[in-house]
Give the backbone structure.
Amino acid sequence: MRKFIIKRILISVVILIFVAFIIYVLMRCLPTSYLEQIAREKSMQPGSKSYDEWMAQLSATYGMDKGIVPGFFAWCGRAIRGDFGDSWKWTVPVTEKFADSVWISFIMGAISFFFEIIIAIPLGIIAATKQYTKVDYAITIIALACFSFPTFFFASLLKLVFSVHLHWFDLGGLIGRHYEQLDAMGKFLDRANHLVMPIVTLVVISIGALMRYTRTNMLEVLNADYIRTARAKGLSENKVIYHHAFRNTLIPLVTMLGGSLPGLFAGALITETLFSIPGIGFVSYQSMVAGDIPFSMFYLVFMAILTLLGNLISDILYAVVDPRVRIA
């Protein structure tokens, strides 16, 4: 197992280098650049240098005057030292802006991920064990409805009902109007109150696919020969389902859930925008639209690292959930 992990890490490093290079090429080929906007604004000031002079100066400052390959290796050299530069749009170090916004998205993503698992997987198992019954049909309808809801529609519906009509929650934002006047516990509850509807939105639009996935895999396992043998031996139905069947259903579920790791940090652009949450999804979108190469490079490479890490964790968990899966 140790050799396997080391081998996978080395392969992941090589993949990461190629992915980072592709991202860098795409960033350099963006049709817009925030540097152009800065140079244009500075050139319009009284007594200022020309637009071309400002572009040359700013390009030299941020290494944009080099070719793509030399520029990429220069970026890698700084990145290894932990220097990802300053964000062009936010005018602060990239890591500082990332740290300010990523934890909001992580908290939302982690809480919604937890509720997604404890709701979708049990319902998927119940639907599989009660196939073609009213319970199965009801769960299937709920799953399809959740899967089909557009994010903007469901979020707008929540705001209409719970904010406009019932006045239980604010329409958006992360803090209320009287936030500064509250004590520590009051500030915590105020933030929690503002995250309720965004988290409900994320949970509802994501549980449908996992419910259907769990049900399908559970049905395949329940129809296997060893399940019929276990029942023929007189084992209780609960032991057959939760000890034998569910453990084998976990293998494909581990693959799906392991790939969810990047989603915890990626943010939810549409949800964060609709509820005015300054998370990393919305911040990264604004940075990309503005042509903010330093921030976009850091964010996309960070997502690539998490994706590779999620795949590695999935492979390791195979051996944990199924003793038959071992690395020679």
In short: The chain has a mean pLDDT of 84. The chain has 14 helices and no strands.
